[in-house]
Amino acid sequence: MRKYFAILAAVVVLVAMSAPAWAQAEAPGSSFTVIGRLWTDFGYQHKSEELATNQYGLTMKGKKRDSYTTNFVNVNANSYWGAKWTSGDKSTGAHAEFAILSKESQNEQVLLRYAYGWWKMGNCKLTAGHTDGVFGSLFAAPGSLLGTSNSGKILFLRWGYLYSGRLPQVRFEYTSPVGLFSIALAQADAEQIVGTESLLYGTSQIGSSQAYFSWPRVDLAYALRLGGFMAIPGFSVSQVRYDGVSSGRDDSVINWVAQLPMTYEIAGFGVKAQIYYGQNIDCEWGQTSTGTLGGQPQAIPVWFGGKVEDTKQLGASIELSYTIDNIKPLIAFGYVDSSNDNWKKVGYTDDNYQRWALMGAVDYKINQYFTVQPEVAYYNYGDRMSSTLNNVSRLVNGSSLSNDYGSEWLFGVAFLFVF
């Protein structure tokens, strides 16, 4: 019943938000717009026998699992319904948006995407609420659309592209003739996982400490556009502190990342690219459940011998496209390289881990409201970083476990209705 109450609550909120539209006679010139996107995925997911075995474990008989292919049809988690309001003098506005989605077993959900307001004066703009920002925006993300609800895959997030996420924040922007500067103070995203102290490997050494944040996450960015070229270099940092840690042990973790996303368009050709480098990326900017990587190591710090060893990560992605009228074929590649000098000490086979992804698609805009995108994508999970599986190191027939963690294919069609 709770899901139906959630849906009903979302509808009630949207109806309430319509009040400005009904009261335009009292506020001439103000505008109110209902917006939405209905996004349905139809496709297939194929997992290699290595990936199936590593993610789900050996069979009851101690053997490897077979590869398998499964069909999925669902309302993508990035479908939404929302509304925007702007004052008559264009100085003030608000935006609220709810995600609507369905998965297997009729798992319908309604989730908050945006809820913020803004105020402009001259070249300055103040934004407050639940939103994403200039830093880590999606403007340069590869256009991979298939598999969000079924496989946790979209836009190569965690596969080479870094996104800031939507968080409660207060943001200031200043626009000049040469670009836009932005600084945001946001709720640290690491708050979502420190409650169980799962932020660190080897957390038994923390004891009964309490996690807290001395200051908000700070996002800095500068947007620059020159003709068909656009870039938004940025930097973000946050800190998690632990109260009650034993004397002589590290009592804080600092997460940071620097990124350079950019796009370039000329005569129908388009390039989107991003490169980023930082530490403990999955504490703040992972965006999707760390469970989507199975038993592979995450970019989170390792607490070993009373000291914190930060996990460094380098990521990059690139998309090439060519637009012909309303058809845009595109290809994209993403790569992630993570390392931690203590991984071997906590049971992994290596201190370095790489994964990569490749996709191709055709974006076909039937009209301004309806888009169809056939897509095929390949995700390679890299080498298996765990030395055992189901607490065994060899199969029942005596053969060794594969060093390959496995791979995954996604292929199908995304249907998007936008209004």
Automatic annotation (TrEMBL):
Keyword Signal: yes
Native organism taxonomy: Bacteria, Pseudomonadati, Thermodesulfobacteriota, Desulfarculia, Desulfarculales
Signal peptide span: 1-23
Protein name: Porin domain-containing protein
Keywords tagged on the record: Signal
Protein's organism: Desulfarculus baarsii (strain ATCC 33931 / DSM 2075 / LMG 7858 / VKM B-1802 / 2st14)
